[in-house]
Amino acid sequence: MLIAGFSWVMFLLSLALVVFSGFALIDAAIRREDAYRAADKQTKPFWLIVLGLSFLVNVANVTLASMWFLLIIGLVATIVYMVDVRPALRGLSGGSGWGRRRGSSSDGPYGPWNGGR
C-alpha cells in the first residue's frame, strides 16, 4: 500500500513537471527575439531547444520513469528560465498583460495611497 501511494505521488509530480516545463516553453515561444538580445540572455532558439528537450524528457518520464539525471538537468534549465530569463524579458517588454500593474507606483490594491491626488 505504501509503494502504491508513493508511485501515485511520483506520477503527480511528473505531471506537475510536464505542466511547468510546458508553460516555460510556451512562454519562451511567445517572447520577441530581440528581447532576448536586449536582456543580454541567450538567444530565443537556444531557449526553445533547451526547454523543448526538457518538455520532451518530462513527457517521456511520465511513461518511462528511467531518466532521472535528464529530468534534473531539464528542471534546472526550466527554473533558470523562469527565475532569471523570464523576469528580464518581462521587464523589457512591460509584461505580457497578465497581472501587469497599471497606474501610479503609489497605487495600493484598492486605489492610490496618496488620497487620490
Description:
Residues 91-117 are annotated as: Disordered. The chain crosses the membrane at residues 6-26, 46-62. InterPro entries: DUF2516 (IPR019662). Keywords: Membrane, Transmembrane, Transmembrane helix. This protein is mainly alpha-helical and 117 residues long. It has one domain (2-93). Helices cover 69% and strands 3% of the residues. It is built from four helices and two strands, in the order ααααββ. It has a two-stranded antiparallel sheet with strand order 1-2. The relative contact order is 0.13. The mean pLDDT is 81.
Helix and strand composition category: mainly alpha
Largest sheet: 2 strands, antiparallel
Overall pLDDT: 81
Helix content: 55-70%
Which strand order does the major sheet show? Answer: 1-2
Q: What is the count of distinct domains?
A: 1
Question: How many strand elements?
Answer: 2
List unreliable stretches of 5+ residues.
none
Give me the number of helical elements: 4
- Radius of gyration computed on alpha carbons: 19 Å
Q: How do the helices and strands follow one another from N- to C-terminus?
A: HHHHEE
Strand content: under 5%
Shape: flat
Tell me the span between the first and last alpha carbons: 64 Å
Transmembrane segments: 6-26, 46-62
Organism: Streptomyces griseosporeus
Keywords: Membrane, Transmembrane, Transmembrane helix
Region (Disordered): 91-117
